[in-house]
Structure formats: structure tokens, C-alpha cells
Amino acid sequence: MTDAAASRVWGIAGVSQTVEDLATYLLGPVMGYILRKRGVTALHASAFCLADKALVLTGEAGAGKSTAAAALALRGLSVLCEDIAALDENDSRFYVHSGHPRVCLWPESVHMLMGQPDALPLITPNWEKRFLPLDGALALHESTMQPVGAIYILAARQAQNAPRVEEVSSREVLLELVQNTYMNWLLDRRQRAAEFELLSRVISQVPARRIIPHRDPAQLGAFCDMLLADAARVLSGRIALPASASR
């Protein structure tokens, strides 16, 4: 439960639940709800840092946002947030706030990354999902908000001609972002219009690309290589967006 201003939140764990269970909901959907109540637009996305910029990975549930963030973290890149990327507009620039210092992963992703499904600690004893701590031991966390450098839309996995990066029009990006804002079902008509305007400003300022992973988990390394190489070119300004992507 929260108060009307979403300045306080409280709850009680059920008889069979633990404090970890309660914290899992608090750091996920409850925090997403609080952000909504406070008028903050958040993308259903993970974000990591490269060249002092936030690179945002967004897409539908199950697209691989968390797995990609964890893989990049294990390469030494700092993760800014996972699953909920809260946006902040300041002086006509967009930033992503820092989130909780961990990346939550299903056992199959842990196995893919670490060699065995139980190599990382459980989020809670009552659930099979595990987490990669961003505590400096295996992976790093960025604790301050960072300017958005680029947005990558994770598409469905394919068995051929993947991984690859594609150009995408502003209209397509806008539709993807509208569909992938956190808890967008809470919005009324006025709030939807305001969010649409904000996201339109985002895509007018931030380059966006579509990235298609390979269906084979063994290709995750190649996916990360391609993403980082493309991001380096985007951030250095060596990729000019076509006219179709600027409309």
C-alpha cells in the first residue's frame, strides 16, 4: 500500500512468505507503481554504461534484456539498472536513473552465463530466480544517473542472419517505446498524451537501433560484440541516421 502522494509504502508478508519475497515485489512492480504515481515515465528496459552514456535495451518480456545486461556486466561494463529504466528530463537532455544493484536471471540464463544453473544466489528461497550482484565482485553498478546515449530495441530471436543491427524509423521507435513503458495500463487519456509527447522528444534527441539476437544461446557473445561495436559507432557520431529514421 502507498499513501496518495506515493511518498510512503508499506506491506506485510504472507504466512508462507519471507522478507525477501516482500522485497522482490517492492523493487519490481511496487516501485514501478510508485514511479507512475509520481509522474515518472519508466521504460521496461535494462541499461548499461559506455563512454559515460547510458545504453538502453528495451523490448517485450522475455526478449533477453536482463541476460544481455548480465553478459555485458560480466565483461566489465557497469550496469545502471535492470527491468525498470526511469527517465529524467533535465535541460533538454534525457537521463536514466540508477536502479537496484543486481540483475535478476532465470536458471537457464545463469547456466548460459556461469556454466551451471545454481551458480548465483537465489532472490528468495521461495522462487527459482537468481541474481547477479552488482557489488564489484563479479560485476559493477553505476550509482549515478547517466545521459541516454542510444536506445536498442530487442527484437525476436532468429535462427538465420543474426545477430544483426538494423536501422529503424522514428515512428517504429515511438510505437515500441509506447508499448514498453512500465505499467502503462495505469495511465488515463491525459497521462497517455503527456507520455506520448515525452517519448517523442526522446526519439528526436536519442539515436535508436533495432538489434536481433540469434536463437542459439551460444551466440550471446557475438551479440554482445555486435552491440558494443555498433554503440561505439553511434556514440562517436559515425553513423548517420537515414531520412526515414528522422521522421
Can you walk me through this structure?
- The chain is an alpha+beta fold.
- It has one domain (44-239): Rossmann fold, CATH 3.40.50.
- The protein is 32% helix and 23% strand.
- It contains six helices and eleven strands.
- The strands form two sheets. A five-stranded mixed β-barrel has the order 1-2-9-5-4, surrounded by four helices.
- Strand 4 and strand 5 (93-96) form a beta hairpin.
- The longest helix is centred in the N-terminal third of the chain and has 19 residues, at 19-37.
- It is globular and about 50 Å long.
- It starts with 18 loop residues before the first helix and ends in a 12-residue tail after the last helix.
- 35% of the residues are buried.
How are the SSEs ordered, and which strands pair?
Elements: H1 19-37, E1 42-50, E2 53-58, H2 65-73, E3 78-81, E4 84-90, E5 93-96, E6 102-105, H3 107-114, E7 130-133, E8 140-141, E9 146-154, E10 164-167, H4 170-179, H5 189-205, E11 208-212, H6 220-235
Parallel strand pairs: 2-9, 3-8, 9-11
Antiparallel strand pairs: 1-2, 1-3, 1-4, 4-5, 5-9, 6-7, 10-11
